[in-house]
Automatic annotation (TrEMBL):
Protein name listed in UniProt: Zinc transporter 2
Cation efflux protein transmembrane domain sequence ranges: 50-258
Keyword 4Fe-4S: no
Coiled coil (UniProt feature): none
Domain of life: Eukaryota
Transmembrane segments: 49-70, 117-139, 151-175, 196-221, 233-257
Record family assignment: Belongs to the cation diffusion facilitator (CDF) transporter (TC 2.A.4) family. SLC30A subfamily.
UniProt-recorded Gene Ontology molecular function terms: zinc ion transmembrane transporter activity
The species this protein was found in: Angiostrongylus costaricensis
SUPFAM superfamilies xrefs: Cation efflux protein cytoplasmic domain-like, Cation efflux protein transmembrane domain-like
UniProt xrefs under Pfam families: Cation_efflux, ZT_dimer
């Protein structure tokens, strides 16, 4: 096995240092097998839970659109549109979980890791289109003074909506199972805990619950006071909430597609930890990027004081990256250190 030496256009023989650290390969293989089994079991459990809430969402969305139509309530329609977006998110999450189990191909060397990101972007676009249409309808109703709302139908629909969201929240919270602990020095809290797609779905449902409570309050106001302006006002308020919540999602999508350093990682901390490894004189071409919303990849060049320690340094770096930062997809390249690297802009970046 060799490692590229960019400063001398040659290769460094690291076979001589492999014998003393052969245990790492066995450890890494066991860790990879264990993680694969964990993610597979966790993914299948999460998929079943997401299917359950997707079916519940689909049933209620049809009921809510019908209720909004018969009640002439745009607030209910807005809530239904938001839930439709969430249903798309649930389906996207299911597709993402299944896609993650598909092996990479020659064409897609990373597999389908970013299917979730692209799907989330489509979901946000659909939600924005629906919200825009409902806001325009609300403005039109105010201008033409067409504010008549069937308060009783609106009240019943909103009450059922609160109930459905509570049930979905319970299914997501207790149905996915999982717990956090560590094995063999590797932090598996994220692996044994709730699936990231289930966590995201739970947050969506909490948002829907708050929105349904808002519709319920508006329906009570209309029924008790007759102030039907509460319906379009509720639509405007929900539209603003949708705008702000989806902006954060779009920001995350933007940074993933731009291959930015994930927010939960400190670039300088990773660089400093690698620099402090024994025999490492310089660290350059360090890249940290997200494959999707929950998986990170890393590549780095390490300049060493001696080629004799190349293999042990690679193993130490990979173990550090995996254990401390939870990054399993890492490429570490070693090369001989040269004093010219201290004045090379490319090497210092």
């Amino acid at each position: 096995m060799t490692a590229s030496n960019s400063s001398e256009n040659s290769s460094v023989d690291i076979e001589s240092d492999r014998g003393d650290h052969g245990h790492f390969k066995k450890w890494e293989k066991l860790q990879c097998n264990e993680l694969y089994q964990i993610f597979t079991i966790q993914g299948r459990r999460a998929e079943k839970v997401l299917w359950a809430v997707a079916v519940l969402s689909a049933i209620f969305i049809m009921a809510e659109f019908a209720g909004g139509y018969f009640a002439s309530s745009l607030a209910i329609m807005t809530d239904a549109g938001h839930m439709l977006s969430d249903l798309l998110s649930f389906i996207i999450s299911i597709v993402a979980i299944r896609s993650a189990r598909q092996p990479p191909s020659k064409r897609l060397s990373w597999g389908y890791e970013r299917a979730e990101v692209l799907g989330a972007m489509v979901s946000v676009i659909i939600l924005w289109v629906l919200t825009t249409i409902l806001v325009l309808l609300a403005i039109e109703r105010i201008i033409n003074n067409r504010l008549s709302v069937e308060a009783n139908v609106m009240l019943i629909t909103a009450s059922v909506g609160v109930g459905f969201n509570v049930i979905m929240g319970i299914v997501l919270h207790f149905g996915s199972g999982g717990h956090g602990h560590t094995h063999g020095g590797v932090n598996h809290s994220r692996s044994h805990g709730k699936n990231v797609n289930v966590r995201a779905a739970f947050i969506h449902v909490i948002g829907d619950l708050i929105q349904s409570i808002g519709v319920l309050i508006a329906s009570v106001v209309i029924k008790t006071t007759g102030w039907e302006m509460a319906d379009p006002i509720c639509t405007f308020i929900f539209s603003i909430i949708v705008l702000f919540t989806t902006m954060t999602v779009l920001r995350d999508i933007f940074f993933v597609l731009m291959e930015a350093t994930p927010r939960h990682l400190d670039f300088n901390a990773v660089r400093n930890d690698l620099t402090e490894l024994e025999h490492v004189q310089s660290v350059h071409d360090l890249h940290l990027w997200s494959l999707n919303m929950d998986k990170t990849a890393l590549s780095v060049h390490l300049a060493l004081d001696s080629s004799e320690h190349a293999w042990s340094t690679v193993e130490a770096a990979r173990m550090l990256i995996r254990q401390k930062y939870g990054i399993s997809k890492a490429t570490v390249q070693v090369e001989s250190y040269d004093k010219s690297m201290n004045s090379c802009e490319q090497c210092m970046n």
